[in-house]
Every structure is written in C-alpha cells, then in structure tokens.
Design brief:
Spore Coat Polysaccharide Biosynthesis Protein SpsA, Chain A, 2 domains
C-alpha cells in the first residue's frame, strides 16, 4: 500500500524561471492564457471539461525501481510545462525515493512510497490516484531508467489536449532507423506481442504495446476499474484492454528506442508464454462483453456462424475419417465436400468478423465528454 495522503489544495510552488525564459503556456505552440484557479476544498475536480482555450495541468509519473543511476537526470530533463512530478518508490532496494528526496531540488517532485514491491503497474496506479485527487488533467508516464526522452512529452500531451485522443503511447516501430539500437530478442518479442495484443485489446492500428511511454487524461482514469488492472509487466497491455472496453481513443506517438547501460527487469522470452495466455483471456472477455452482452451486431453473427460451421465441418470430417480408417473404406467425394465446405465457409465468416473488428476501433474521444 502507498503512504500517499492527499493534502487538499496545497501544491508546491512551480520553479522560478529566469528572465527571458518562456512560460509554460508559451511552450510548443500552447496559447499564453492564464491557468485556471486551483480546485477548492470539496471540489478537487474542475467544474467543467478542458477545452482548446485552456492550458491543461500536466503531471509526470515515474515508477522508481533500481533507477538510481538515471533518475535525477530524468527529472532534471522534464520541462517547465509540467506542474507536478510523482516519483513512486516501489520498495526500491537502492532507495531511489530517498535519493530523490535528499538530492533533487525540484519543488514539483512529490515522492510516494510503497512498503512492498508491487510492480510497475501498481506504482502507476498510485500516481494516477494522486493525480486525480490533485486535479491534474493529463498524466504522462516516463520510466526512470533514461530510455524515454522527456523532450517528447509535448508530442504525447498534444493529441489529448486537443481532444483528439484519450490515451497516447509510444511506438518504436514507426521508423526503421529507430530499431537499429533495439536488441534482436526485444525486436522479435515485441513484434510477436504486438500482433497478439491487437487481437486481445482491439486496437488494430497500434503497435509496440509494451511501450511504457504513455499519457492519459484523468477523466479516463476515473472511468477505469483501477482495482482490476494488472500490477506488474502486463500493465500496459491490460490498460489497452480496459481502454477498449470503455471505448477510449488510443493514438500511437512515434519515438526512437534508446538503449545504453540500463538493464530491463522484463525477460521477453520468459514473458511471452504468460503474455500469450493473458492476451487470449482478454480477447475472450472482450468478445463476450462487446459482441454478446453490450451489443449484438453483424460481427457477432459472423463470429458465431464461423465458429459453428468450422466446428460442424471438423466433427463431420473427423467422424468419417475415423470410419474410413476403421473399416478401410475410401470416403466419397461428396463426403469430403460435405466436410470441407462448412470449414471453408466458416473461415470466410471468421475473416469477415476480423475485418469488422478492425473497423470497430473507437473513434470518438471520451475525455471531451463531461459526463
């Protein structure tokens, strides 16, 4: 459990800017419009949705576990457009949280502690809850190991601030040049996981699902069942599944892969079997809820007819194949056709279902809806 305790409206003062420096609202094309007043007690959330004419309140969440080599440099590189930085010490054996508290002069930083190691997902959920309580609009996740360039943060925030997306995530596969520094094992593992995740989460246009560089609107956080989301390495993929269930819009942001002397705690080859089983489970849940419970549409008919025809053809063919082996009788061409035709039609129906599922990707952002 985290020892985070909300402190009402008290927020540390933003760092002073030197003369001639740009204000947070002037960076990256944002209009220089005064910020809204902080939320009053008893009204932690704003009274109206963020619009194009308002400057969103941005926070960065950094899960901290064995990142003492890079964490101070990562925090120092975060720009002044960020109002709050949540550093979550997930029972780090290197004492990353104490290092930040003692050596980081940035007044925006708030260190949150876990008494036991709960995983990167649990650390992010702690930061998400803190951001919602503090009235933040957009939360950006940046790892503390130096693999994610904080200078890209505006690119992740911009689609959400403009009402074009609810959730953005990095994509290291967008440019071939960015893959040159990626280890071959990670490249193959991420490619395999990407296809499986497309099937389970329904975001067929997204790639690189395990990428941890993400941004989300807090209105979406409030709609998610946080207690049901995975706490460890399956967190990013499970987030996509739950986002699809609530029909949130997800957009990929191109980024380059950075690998130096850091070591990942995730072993891709060991994670593949676990991720495969969990993705199959999420696909079954998503299909049952979206195509049988919440709605019954043409995609539902395609999938049910496809499965029934394939099953019927396979059972019929297996029975007559067994009889031909047992009684040494050659099956007639008509019998073979009666077995093959339902399977062929069933496969066509399943392909039609996949085509419908691809076109059924959420397109209307939820974060602009106050309700």
């Amino acid at each position: 459990m985290s020892n985070y305790t909300p402190r009402g409206d008290a927020r540390p003062a933003p760092p002073r800017r030197q003369a001639g420096s740009h204000s947070p609202n002037q960076i990256n094309g944002l209009k220089n419009i005064p910020r809204r007043h902080p939320p009053t007690a008893g009204n932690a959330r704003r009274s109206k949705p963020t619009t194009m004419s308002e400057s969103p309140r941005i926070a960065v969440a950094i899960p901290c576990y064995k990142v003492h080599k890079h964490i101070l440099d990562v925090i120092a590189a975060i720009g002044p457009e960020v109002e709050r930085i949540y550093a979550v010490d997930d029972a780090c054996p290197e004492g990353s949280g104490k290092l930040i508290a003692s050596r980081c002069p940035d007044t925006r930083v708030q260190v949150l502690y876990h008494h036991s190691n709960q995983g990167v997902g649990a650390a992010m959920l702690t930061a998400y809850r803190a951001a919602v309580q503090d009235g933040i609009d957009i939360v950006v996740k940046i790892d503390g190991d130096g693999q994610m360039n904080p200078a890209l943060l505006p690119a992740f925030v911009r689609p959400i601030a403009k009402g074009l997306a609810d959730y953005t995530k990095g994509n290291r596969f967008h440019r071939p040049e960015s893959l040159r520094t990626m280890p071959p094992v990670r490249l193959l593992g991420n490619a395999a996981l990407s296809f499986i995740t497309k099937l389970s989460c329904g975001y067929w246009g997204c790639m690189d699902p395990t990428n941890g560089y993400t941004a989300i609107h807090t209105r979406i956080i409030e709609r998610l069942p946080l207690e049901k989301i995975e706490n460890r390495y399956f967190f990013e993929t499970d987030m996509l599944y739950h986002l699809n269930i609530i029909r949130a819009v997800v957009r990929d942001i191109p980024m380059d892969a950075i690998y130096e002397d850091e070591e990942s705690n995730l072993k891709v080859l060991h994670a593949l079997p676990e991720f495969f089983l969990k993705n199959i489970s999420r696909f079954c849940k998503r299909y049952f809820y979206l195509y049988l419970v919440r709605d019954f549409n043409i995609g539902s008919l395609y999938s049910l007819l496809g499965c029934l025809l394939c099953l019927a053809g396979s059972i019929f063919g297996a029975i007559h194949w067994a009889k031909s082996i047992l009684y040494q009788q050659v099956a007639s061409s008509g019998t073979v056709m009666l077995a093959a035709l339902p399977i062929i039609l069933g496969v066509q129906f399943l392909i039609a279902f996949l085509h419908y599922d691809v076109s059924n990707t959420p397109k209307d952002p939820l974060s602009s809806d106050p309700y």
